[in-house]
Write a structure and sequence with these properties.
Elements: H1 2-18, H2 23-43, H3 53-70, H4 75-95
Helix pairs in contact: 1-2, 3-4
Length: 114
Amino acid sequence: MLSDYRIWLESELKLLGNASHHAYSFGQANMAKRALERLDHEVGDRVLVTFTLPEASGILTALEMLLEKTSALPPELAGLRERISVAVNDVHGLERIKASDLPERLDEAPEETG
């Protein structure tokens, strides 16, 4: 996902650099490029593995079953279990925020009295 954005951003920087576009646009593109470079630096030694929510739940179930049989997981699997559990709980927390709890438009938000 980020590689596609990075390719698009590089093409935009070339376009903005070769044309007489507003300096603000060029500055925004440069800020985005620096942000990507910072992100690369921060997560450069990490491996991203994505799971669907059902896959993550299945992995947690399998690790729980393994834990019941062996009474202790190797530290690597215990860490994986913890990280997946936190991620699944984060997703479920986001699902609790329903659209019905939010105003349809910002100008319809309750006014403050004071």
